[in-house]
Amino acid sequence: MKFKADEIASVIQKEIEQFETHIDVRQVGRVIEVGDGIAQVYGLTGVMSGEMLEFPGGVRGQAFNLEENSVGVIILGDYLKIQEGDEVRTTGELLRVPVGEAVLGRVIDPLGNPLDGKGPIAATEYRFVEERAPGVADRQPVRESLQTGIKAIDSMTPIGRGQRELIIGDRKTGKTQIGVDTIINQKGKGVKCFYVAVGQKDSTVAGIINTLRQHGAMEYTTVIVAGASSPAPLQYIAPYAGTSMAEYFMYNGQHALIVYDDLSKQAAAYRELSLLMRRPPGREAYPGDVFYCHSRLLERSAKLSDDLGGGSLTSLPIVETQEGEVSAYIPTNVISITDGQIYLQPDLFFRGQRPAMNVGISVSRVGGSAQIPAMKQVAGGLRLDLAAFRELEAFAQLGSDLDAATQARLDRGYAMNELLKQGVCKPLDVIDEVFVIYAGTHGFIDSVPLKEIGRWETEFLAYLHDRKNDLWDKVNEARKLNPELNAEIEAAISEFNEEFKKSL
Predict the structure, then answer these.
(1) Which phi and psi (to 5°) does residue 96 adopt?
(2) Which candidate, 374, 441, 469, 454, places its Cα nearest to that of 492?
(3) How many Å apart are CA 443 and CA 415, to the nearest integer?
(4) Percent of the chain at pLDDT exceeding 90
(5) Which H, E and C letters describe 34-83, residue by residue?
(6) Which residues are catalytic, by number?
(7) Cβ distance 107 to 116 under 8 Å?
(8) Segment 67-117, tens digit of pLDDT
(9) 310 and 255 in one domain?
């Protein structure tokens, strides 16, 4: 058998060209202690803060504490599979989550794993969970309104695209419902919605998903779940993961809305991790950097400048208070970071005022710039009037005789309170809100019995859409009221009132 020298030379030449000297260099450490969602690892001297680590069985962790002789790791998964002495490897990567259209309509955990049984998420892009917030020069003022569909909020504490509006109150006062109604109201408005459930009961989250599905809102919504049974590390990173998914749309010139339900439970999870890691406790046993934990999260919500595409991320963080204690540590922290708060008061809720918004404490620091001009015109003094009514009501309870003018103001206040009540999952179009509030503030419902005001509103809106559709279209097109439109609106309300009186 003869060998051809040129053939052998060409094969060797090809092998040399294709030869790659790829050495996989990874640091390896050992678990010296594990439990309660954290592990202490020895031997990873070159690990970076926040770097992802690999445990046996595919469980991943994140470097949380860099100590002199060991590394404190938070375990993002089932820590019961990890045992003392297990090998731990560095990955050289930071935590990333899938983003883009692929996550819309899905129920996922904070790591991007599906929980809805619809198969894997076919994402082509990923974003880091911890991203830097846009700088001052990258933002523009909040001027574009984001309608919640809730009369009391859109008229008195309006929310703009790019704003952070805190929803605060005791448990069972309707905080989550405001977030859910706002998500439902974004249907057809091109706003991508994200609902982050932290520390919630799985049955509660299932109910919310079902509600969103019934109203066709799951098509543009992603639900990120770190429930009450999830380990503390997952509850801690869930809001950051949800924000990264929402930021993708903001940086692509689109609009997104994110509801954090709720940040009190996330702070408690962070406190748990910090105490287990032996970080020094501060006020209420929270670590010293719990303010930074929330500020770096909420500062990522913004209305970007036109140079960056003009996209926006609006956030509605929810914080639970104990016995109405607004001056507790976490509530005051988040109030100081956000652009206003909607305070829900238990006694108003139990009196049947839904949403149970206390207009005296609730505020939007963006104010009228986040309202359409027509709403600003009809609801300009509504907040002050209602706050004054609350004081007058307390005074009237003393039982002293009231003059006619004071009694008239009281009656108007009771009527407006009744008008601002709203059922769950029944958001209104902003033009419908303008008509209804116009009727209330201009005294057109003063003669309607209180118990009939709900029926009056329903029948008036039906009358508007059936018989005065051209007037509705005019207001919708102008977005601003003028004397001619005012006269037409008043004529329409008076005409309806004549018909309504006959049905009483």
Answers:
(1) -125, 155
(2) 469
(3) 9
(4) 79
(5) EECCEEEEECCCCCCCCEEEECHHHCEEEEEEECCCCEEEEEECCHHHCC
(6) 365
(7) yes
(8) 988 999 999 988 899 999 999 999 999 999 999 999 999 999 999 999 999
(9) yes
Q: Are residues 229 and 344 in the same domain?
A: yes
Residues 193 and 323 in one domain: yes
Contact predicate 236/273, CB 8 Å: yes
List Cα–Cα distances, 421 to 172, 186, 248, 408, 446, in angstroms: 17, 20, 36, 20, 16
Does the residue 149 lie in any domain?
Answer: yes
Query: Do 209 and 344 fall into the same domain?
Result: yes
Other beta carbons within 10 Å of 353: 18
Task: Indicate the pTM of the whole model.
Answer: 0.92
Q: Which domain holds residue 444?
A: 378-503
* DSSP helix/strand/coil, 408: helix
105 part of a folded domain? no
Domains in the chain, number: 3
CATH number at residue 458: 1.20.150.20
Q: Which residues of 364-374 are buried (b: 16+ CB within 10 A; e: fewer)?
A: bebeeebbbeb
Q: Are residues 262 and 337 in the same domain?
A: yes
Examine residue 358 and state whether it is found in any structural domain, yes or no: no
Residue 78 inside a domain? The answer is: yes
Q: What is the pLDDT of residues 313-341, one digit of tens each?
A: 999 999 999 998 999 999 999 999 999 99
Structure tokens, 179: 């977030």
Q: Which of 68, 94, 120 is the last residue of a domain?
A: 94
| Tokens matching residue 308 | 């960056």
